Amino acid sequence: MARLSNQEGLADWLPGRLAEERPVVTVIGDSILDGWWDGTIERFCREAPAPVVQVQRRDFAPGGAANTAMNLAAMGADVRFVSLVGEDSGGHTLLEQLRSAGVDVSYVVSHAGMTTTTKFRVSSGGQVMLRLDDAAEEVPLDGLRQMAAAIPQALPGSSAVVLCDYGAGALEGAVRDVILENLGPQSEGSEARSASARQDTLVVVDAHYPGRWAQLRPDLATPNAQEAARLLGTEFPGGAARCPFVEAHADQLLRTSGAAAVVVTLDREGTLTIRPNGDSRNPATHRTWARPQAEKQASGAGDTFVAALTIARAAGLPLTTSVDLAQAAADVVVHRPGTSVCTTDELAKHLRGFADTALTDSELARHVEEHRSEGKRIVLTNGCFDVLHRGHTRYLNQAKQLGDVLVVALNSDSSVRKLKGPDRPVNHEADRAAVIAALSCVDHVTVFDTPTPIPLIELLQPDVYAKGGDYTPEMLQETEAVERYGGTVTILDYVPEHSTTAVLERIRSTGEAPQT
Questions:
Q1: How far apart are CA 401 and CA 390, in angstroms?
Q2: Which of 303, 324, 413, 463 does the annotation list as catalytic?
Q3: 404-419 b/e (C-beta count within 10 Å ≥ 16 → b)
Q4: Residues 6 or more apart from 7 whose CB is under 8 A from it?
Q5: Which of 67, 158, 183, 208 could be 303's S-S partner, Cβ–Cβ 3.0 to 4.6 Å?
Q6: What Å distances lie between residue 180 and 206, 215, 394, CA to CA?
Q7: What residues contact residue 406 under an 8 Å CB cut-off, 6+ apart?
Q8: How many distinct helices (H) and strands (E) make up the chain?
Q9: What are φ and ψ of residue 514, in 5° steps?
Q10: pLDDT tens, 302-345?
Q11: Which strands sit side by side in the sheet containing 24-29, from one edge to the other?
């Protein structure tokens, strides 16, 4: 656990290590069964100008809170699921798939008066043509009472609890009362909580209306853009303007959600994490960037994100590293058709894919030219980036925000030795490149062996050359090369207490890295 609490940056061994921790996570919320029906269209029906889909394949997958539970189990958590389903074919299919995935469904209430929410998507040729929703008009009160009675039985020993409130009615009435009673903050002078109470349990709220759970004072709230807009009582701007908008309203989002930290998911724009009273060691904001590809019939990437974030935090990873890992997990599933989960092996393989990502100069120049032809702004920075720490990740996130594409040039092992001494680098260039490439803010990585990156600057001609440290542009040899073609040199924050030298000295003196 100590190693995980100090882990900065992603590595392919990390998903397996989280699975070894096997945290107990209780998921409480609205169950959905997702149906994906696919077929061919060769004619229109006679009754109306509507295509006739000849269904050739029918797939069903747990959705909503059940999808969050499935993802948690696939990543190695010991999952207890509390929900309310009908005694119908949808409920039977849902429970069967959850059991097969290793989810404990003994706390799920099956009720004859309940209709299992089912969403049928009909598609052809990769295009969803129609969605049919079948849901209960009214959730039976005695079903809610039975579900409420199951919650105190499911909570003892839980490292984390995830509330998935999609407004379908499973978290109303008696259920809501029991959740607030068992997981709400203990008021001064109140009696000591029972063994099933919150105490050190991580509480995560994933809700369409996060403000409904503000009095719970959750550790994390994970609204999407629409849900965050509800918290603010206003509309969000579109595209790249959304992150600055979220940051400008950080205090209000924290206050109205009641959460210790809020992670706003913004689809193609990635995520923005906000928390109060940030400092150089724990910045108030942390950004991730999605890796968008061609759109597909994907559903539930947000559930995957919440699941990965929860298991990472429950196992002790720092919040920023947990959010980075959750973004990577979402990137795995967002490009798949249908509702899917991210497994431990798939996430490790995804991270392993960054191991050989250092580009040659010619490969990099070709990519940069393609980006430039698309009107994108290129940012270049360089450094040793040995023993990755939060100062590095904060700096690289700042550099990314200067443009659209961030290129990181790593000093080769031989040049690091010349700069830092014979005992450096601690990590070889291939390992350093893999860790840096896994950061969502980084688009391309290369390794250079020259005394300065000036030859690379002259080749790529980035719009912005970013440098971290207590420099001025006039102090840098690179400035003249950048300004010669009309580029800009930007000096970013210097975080001396997070220097690699300080980290190594701490390790040598105490045997452990500084706490984050």
A1: 17
A2: 303
A3: bbbbbbbbbbebbeee
A4: 14, 317, 318, 321
A5: 67
A6: 15, 8, 36
A7: 379, 381, 396, 399, 400, 441, 442, 443, 444
A8: 19, 22
A9: -60, 145
A10: 999 999 999 999 999 999 999 999 999 999 998 777 778 999 99
A11: 78-82, 24-29, 160-165, 202-207, 220-221, 261-265, 271-274, 285-288
Determine the pLDDT at residue 380: 96
Q: Which of 167, 149, 168, 164 is nearest to 106 (CA)?
A: 149
- State the Cα angle at 356 between 350 and 360, rounded to 5°: 135
Domain 2-32+65-106+149-352, architecture per CATH: 3-Layer(aba) Sandwich (3.40)
For 119-159, how does the pLDDT look when each residue is reduced to its tens digit (9 = 90+)? 888 888 777 888 888 888 889 999 999 999 999 999 999 99
**Closest C-alpha among 101, 109, 159, 55 to residue 339:** 101
- Report DSSP state, residue 268: G
pTM of the model: 0.82
Q: What is the pLDDT of residue 508?
A: 55
Q: Note the pLDDT tens digit of each residue in 208-229.
A: 999 999 999 999 999 999 999 9
- With DSSP H G I counted as helix, E B as strand and the rest as coil, what are the percentages for the chain, rounded to 5? 40, 25, 35
Residue with tokens 């309203």: 249
DSSP annotation of 208? S
Q: Which of 70, 88, 76 is closest to 27 using CA atoms?
A: 70
206 is an active site residue: no
Six token digits for residue 369: 């030219």
Question: Across-strand partners of 62?
Answer: 33
**Backbone phi and psi for residue 243, each to the nearest 5 degrees, phi listed first:** -65, -50
Q: Which residue has the tokens 């191991």?
A: 355
| Inter-residue contact 184 to 151 (CB < 8 Å) | no
- 447's tokens: 């390794």
* Side chain identity at residue 154, one-letter code: A
Amino acid making up residue 479: T
The top-level CATH class assigned to 358-510 is alpha beta
* Helix ranges, 155-274 (H): 173-183, 225-232, 242-248, 250-257
Burial of 79 (0-12, 13-18, 19+ CB in 10 A): buried
Task: Give the CA radius of gyration of the chain.
Answer: 25
- Any idea how long the chain is? 516
CA distances, 218 to each of 162, 195, 235, 393 (Å): 10, 19, 24, 26
**Residue ranges of the domains in the chain?**
2-32+65-106+149-352, 358-510
